[in-house]
Design goal:
By secondary structure, this protein is α/β, with parallel strands linked by helices. 34% of the residues lie in helices and 19% in strands. The chain is elongated and about 80 Å long.
């Protein structure tokens, strides 16, 4: 209303009554100055000058709000903040100012999720102004110095997720030790730099860490038979991690680094181990699987995936069906298994699986086999056997190598239809 003269008394009371019950706000649209000023005026007449006394969650969206808007939430007990910098640099600057203002006045905030990819040079917001912070998810740019400030000032941090890119100089030597006594979950999968990931692992002492994800995108510049130049430092960082974090239950990584089974086997508390895009030139064999299974008896999930696009045709998968027996013997709680298996002798494959899977067939719920080279009919036999012998199996993924003449696409379509009709039709009905 262009002739707005301020709210009436009854309107103000009604608004205050509603505002007092609001626990969550999302700012989908830009609030006009006149509306913000009117709300501030109403707030000045509220008890203790707090307009939203029950507000717990604030989602600022990605719109460039007026700087005055922060006053609307003064004194509100906000615990969770979501904010996005939008797709334009100018918008990101506005939202950064809003976030900075909120952090300066909301020291009790415990959870922040911020997306600031639009402005690469912003760096990590000063979230260390919120000493009670427990959860941080940040998509943007930051330095190792930002990480140090975060860990030093937010001792209650329980969960951290970083995506985006890093900038600034990374010291050739590890950063000074950074105690993180409350950190239980660390997700660095979305970072663009293995160097800063290694630096974080080297410097951070997190005795309560239970979940770590460092599934960096593989760097395609290195030959499949070589490993990343940072490999020695990475191996050292993982050894330190194993010594410091005895509670680690879940580890996910994607790397061209040869960590070797001995390094991975040091994480004896693991219940879940995911390895993606492992360089085939540095692949594991049956003896490595035996070592891992023997050292990690608590495993409930094991997934290993080679980077097929980087595998030379001359390099075959070294793991054979024999490795199923190691899982059955040592990891008796295993329910999820993903394994690249060498099926060089298709005629023996079904029998090998039968022999090795029997001991833990009742527990198995998810099985992934890749890549297999099988005749179409043999593939049908394998699938049929697995579905019958593993009664609790809910997911079955078999990736076939169709580069050879063993199986054609029409064969695969026919097999899928037959399997669905034979084993799943009754369940669907």
């Amino acid at each position: 209303n262009s002739h707005f003269n301020g709210p009436s008394v009854s309107d103000s009371d009604r608004f205050l009554s509603i505002a007092a019950k609001v626990t969550s706000i999302r700012l989908d649209k830009i609030l006009p100055d006149v509306l913000v000023k009117a709300m501030l005026e109403i707030g000045s007449s509220s008890p203790e000058n707090i307009l939203f006394p029950a507000l717990n969650t604030l989602d600022c969206g990605g719109n460039p709000q007026d700087d005055l808007i922060c006053g609307l939430f003064a004194g509100s007990p906000i615990m969770t903040i979501f904010i996005s910098g939008g797709e334009q640099g100018e918008t990101a600057q506005h939202t950064r100012r809003l976030l900075s203002s909120l952090l300066a006045t909301q020291s009790q905030v415990q959870s922040i999720a911020a997306d600031e990819m639009a402005v690469p040079g912003l760096g990590l917001p000063e979230v260390w102004q919120a000493p009670e912070l427990r959860s941080l998810a940040y998509n943007g740019a930051f330095t190792i110095g930002d990480w140090a400030k975060l860990i030093q000032n937010c001792q209650n941090l329980d969960s951290v997720t970083f995506e985006g890119f890093t900038f600034g100089t990374i010291a050739p030597n590890p950063t000074a030790s950074l105690p993180a006594p409350s950190l239980r979950r660390l997700d660095l999968a979305g970072l663009d730099s293995s160097d800063i990931t290694i630096d974080i692992l080297e410097s951070t002492i997190a005795p309560q860490l239970m979940e770590l994800d460092v599934t960096l995108d593989p760097v395609p510049l290195f030959d499949a038979l070589q490993e990343d130049p940072s490999a020695p430092r990475a191996r050292s960082a993982f050894r330190l991690l194993a010594e410091r974090s005895h509670c680690l239950e879940s580890l996910a990584l994607a790397t061209s680094i040869t960590l070797r089974a001995k390094v991975l086997a040091a994480f004896r508390s693991l219940r879940s181990l995911d390895i993606h895009d492992w360089t085939p030139g540095c692949q594991l064999d049956d003896s490595d699987i035996h070592s891992l299974c023997h050292s990690l008896p608590k495993l409930r999930r094991f997934y290993l995936e080679y980077n097929i696009s980087r595998r030379p045709l001359s390099v075959d998968t070294k793991i054979t069906p024999k490795s199923f027996g190691f899982f059955a013997r040592y990891t008796t709680e295993l329910t999820y298994l993903g394994l690249p298996v060498n099926a060089a002798k298709p005629e023996d494959f079904t029998g090998s699986i039968l022999t090795e899977l029997v001991p833990f067939q009742k527990n198995l719920k998810h099985l992934t086999l890749t890549p297999l080279t099988l005749f179409a009919d043999r593939t049908k036999d394998v699938v049929s056997f697995l579905l019958v012998q593993c009664p609790n199996l809910t997911e079955l993924d078999i990736y076939l190598d169709v580069a050879h003449s063993w199986t054609s696409v029409p064969d695969l379509i026919r097999i899928e239809r037959e399997m669905r009709s034979t084993y799943f039709q009754r369940q669907v009905k």
